[in-house]
Specification:
This protein has helices at residues 2-23, 25-56, 66-94, 102-131, 138-145, 149-156, 159-177. By secondary structure, it is mainly alpha-helical. This is Colicin V production protein.
Length: 178
């Protein structure tokens, strides 16, 4: 079972690299930035637009959940508007990649970014696999990790797990010093 999961991880990394190559670094980075900005703008702006929604949608006025419904409508509306605006900006900025010389470098850098993104996602999945014995899933963990040296190595040397353990140790020491 572990070999199958490792093969799936390998295929996933290859797909991420292909997607990154096709998109290019510029479009991938702008797309990531647009999602971050979209969530930030929707989070900050929804409280303001909530009042406008309450005033203009008579069906939700006077109900118990008026604030929540209005906030959700404002949040989703802002997300849609932001994504539309950012997609136009990304399309315009992506025209720069058609300049000779820039296109190939952009695509290779996009493939590298895809490899990094895929690796990060695999690290998160492996981290959750490493938690399985701690939540009563010992037999499933043994099926996944047992018999595959590559999978065992991935679980034992996962940088994400090591960073979390290190942070827990630091926080524990701070608490003990108080």
């Amino acid at each position: 079972m572990g070999e199958i999961i490792v093969a799936v991880f390998g295929i996933y990394l290859i797909l991420q690299m292909i997607i990154g190559y096709r998109r290019g670094l510029i479009k991938s980075m702008l797309n990531l930035a647009s999602w971050i900005l979209t969530f930030a703008i929707a989070y900050k702006g929804a409280a303001y637009f909530k009042e406008i929604v309450i005033q203009n949608v008579p069906e939700i006025q006077g109900t118990i959940v008026t604030d929540r419904i209005a906030y959700m409508i404002a949040y989703m509306g802002l997300m849609i508007v932001c994504k539309i605006i950012f997609s136009v900006v990304i399309r315009l900025a992506n025209k720069v990649t058609r300049v000779p010389g820039v296109g190939f470098i952009n695509k290779v850098a996009g493939a590298a970014l895809g490899l990094i993104k895929g690796s990060l996602i695999i690290m998160v999945v492996v981290f959750f696999i490493s938690l399985m014995p701690h939540v009563g899933m010992e037999s499933e963990y043994a099926q996944i990790v047992g018999g595959s040296e590559v999978m065992q190595t991935m679980v034992e040397t996962n940088p994400l797990e090591q960073m979390i353990k290190q942070q827990i140790q630091i926080e524990t020491q701070k608490l003990l010093q108080q």
